[in-house]
Amino acid sequence: MLKTILSISGRRGLFKLVSHGKNMLIVESLEDGKKVPAYAKDKVISLGDIAIYTVGAEVPLHEVLTKIKDKENGAKASISTSAKPDELRAYLAEVLPDFDRERVYPSDIKKLISWYNILIEAGITDFSQEDEKEVPADDEKEE
To answer: Strand pairing of 35-39 and 15-21?
Structure first.
């Protein structure tokens, strides 16, 4: 599901990929449902391609979002995005204890919490990476 959810640099919120056009994408805001174009010049990133730095390796965003959902019992985050940096770090440490405190900034944690809340409000609660489930099933059918 997260592969079709996009963050567009310079635009607030998250967007769902609706369609492709010539040199652009048609996306729908998860907050207000408005459809808008995203052009080739816009920096568009799929949430499925994002990971959080940890001391050992990077953890895919879908795993972190799932841990937040488990901590919050499927409700919105219990911490505000306007919380102090130390409070934000403490919150993320509860969810992802080994996150890299030097490379994950408070602004990153604010964005993570904001994205989580937007997804929950939009009714998107399955953060699993569907690609991993579908690939083996396709392989089995071909054999």
So the answer is: unpaired
Retrieve residue 100's tokens: 């890299």
For 1-143, strand residue ranges (E) read 5-8, 15-21, 24-29, 35-39, 44-46, 51-53, 58-60
| Residue found under tokens 């730095």 | 53
Q: Which of 97, 103, 118 is nearest to 11 (CA)?
A: 118
Global model pTM greater than 0.70: yes
Q: What is the pLDDT along the chain (143 residues), one digit of tens a residue?
A: 788 999 999 899 999 999 988 889 999 999 999 999 999 889 999 999 999 999 989 999 999 999 999 999 999 999 999 999 999 999 999 999 999 999 999 999 999 999 999 999 999 888 876 654 443 433 443 44
